Amino acid sequence: MVNAKDDRKFSVLIAGGGSTYTPGIVLTLLNGLDKFPLRKLKFYDNDGERQKKIADATAILIKERAPEIEFEATTDPKEAFTDVDFVMAQIRVGKYAMRSLDEKIPLKHGVVGQETTGPGGIAYGLRSIPGVIELVDYMEKYSPNAWMLNYSNPAAIVAEATRRLRPNSKIINICDMPIDIMDRMAAIVGLKDRNDLVFRYYGLNHFGWWTEITDKQGNDLMPQLKEYVSKNGYWVGGDYDKGTEASWESTFKKAADVYKLDPTTLPNTYLKYYMYPSWVVKHSDPNYTRTDEVEAHRQKLVFGECKRIVDNGTAKDTDFKPDEHSTYIVDLCTAIAYNTHQRMLAIIPNEGAISNIDPTATVEVPCLFGSNGPERLSMGKAATYQKGMITEQNSVEKLAVDAWVEHSYTKLWQAFSLCKIVPDAGIAKDILDEMIVANKDFWPELK
Ligand SMILES: NC(=O)c1ccc[n+]([C@@H]2O[C@H](COP(=O)([O-])OP(=O)(O)OC[C@H]3O[C@@H](n4cnc5c(N)ncnc54)[C@H](O)[C@@H]3O)[C@@H](O)[C@H]2O)c1
Ligand SMILES: O=P(O)(O)OC[C@H]1O[C@H](O[C@H]2[C@H](O)[C@@H](O)[C@@H](O)O[C@@H]2CO)[C@H](O)[C@@H](O)[C@@H]1O
Ligand SMILES: [Mn+2]
Q1: Could you tell me the pTM of the whole model?
Q2: Which PANTHER family does the record associate with it (predicted)?
Q3: Which amino acids bring their CB within 6 angstroms of ligand 1?
């Protein structure tokens, strides 16, 4: 509950208002007004038509639940970014059409095709860098005191780019994958949710490991979790997983095999792509990838529900609800707004947090969140296995940013071929050459 003497109310902008994740965030904001009061909510997107479908439903939600909040949706950057305290960014440059190619082009060559991993993730990175930098520049121009919490992927490459190109900007890059996994861990050990856990975690984005997990009383939960994960991965099942899609079920279960590679830690689910790429390719359909599933499922559900709300003129019976993605970003804003020093993960410049990793690497570690942003916690030394993996993958991410900055074909080829999931430089070149053509409207011309 907000301190009675503190009567601040905040103005929030969702950049990427047309995102499938926007309704979840709106519901979380509306449910949490006692902890994070709002005076204004705005949407910004460069696709006004897509955004309008979500905005029209949101207008009804706000009218019914908190009519005192001013709401507007715009495609005009000045209108969007003026008088804002927090920007929640979740844009997808190139939209699902380009995500589909990120997945399908590598798969044609027998290589993992994934949104944020391998050649697909690098291709997406080169599209996202200018998109996110543009958002940061709008924020600094129109609301220089605002903070940006950025989900736009691939967060690792975006964070490396903003570290280098906008080192003093108030952007904090974040990810919901460890958050989702920690909610699962809490369920596995019979606790309410991730906020009941105290943890140590280190690595890169979509590339990290938990080294310690206790409850609030300090009881070690690692033995119980390891025992469970070695058999079931992070799959909880039952009511908890009602509605979880089959491909996510497979990913959560595969964590059992990933765990076996290093039984001293617990892994992020994304490591499956690096440790079992042949298995992933074998279980992929190059003609029907994750994008096709998202378009047929999440996108359809979200836009269908918005249409239903608008057609009925009411959102009283909506099944939109908060989830780990939305509660995390709102919790982060609340911690910054009220200087709570809550311990949460962020993707930030290493600067010693992992002592034997390049200080200029962009890593994911727990931080204390307060009004000056995140203060990184020291995670000590990476073990030999993790150090090797992190060093290689971080070099891939740095080379991708180098390639965008220098317009360098060679650096991008190096990034593709250094990536653990690409078997050789010849295959890397074949994929790269096809991706250059596919991304001609988004990438700089490479020399
Ligand atoms: N970091 C994480 O853990 C995490 C978790 C979930 C989603 N995401 C990311 O959130 C983003 C949204 O995902 P989604 O599946 O809802 O995508 P989506 O395509 O439904 O929504 C993205 C929106 O961004 C808009 N957009 C694209 N380029 C833009 C630009 N330059 N300026 C303004 N708007 C722009 C699109 O028009 C679209 O409405 C993606 O980047 C996704 O990878 C990240
Ligand atoms: O394939 P998608 O678009 O469904 O998901 C890609 C995103 O996956 C992670 O976020 C998950 C989250 O972990 C899961 O629990 C649930 O909340 O859905 C999210 C999105 O589906 C990952 O952290 C993101 O970076 C990916 O974009
Ligand atoms: Mn993520």
Answers
A1: 0.98
A2: 6-PHOSPHO-BETA-GLUCOSIDASE-RELATED, MALTOSE-6'-PHOSPHATE GLUCOSIDASE
A3: 15-16, 18-21, 45-47, 50-51, 90-93, 95-96, 131, 151-153, 155, 175-177, 325
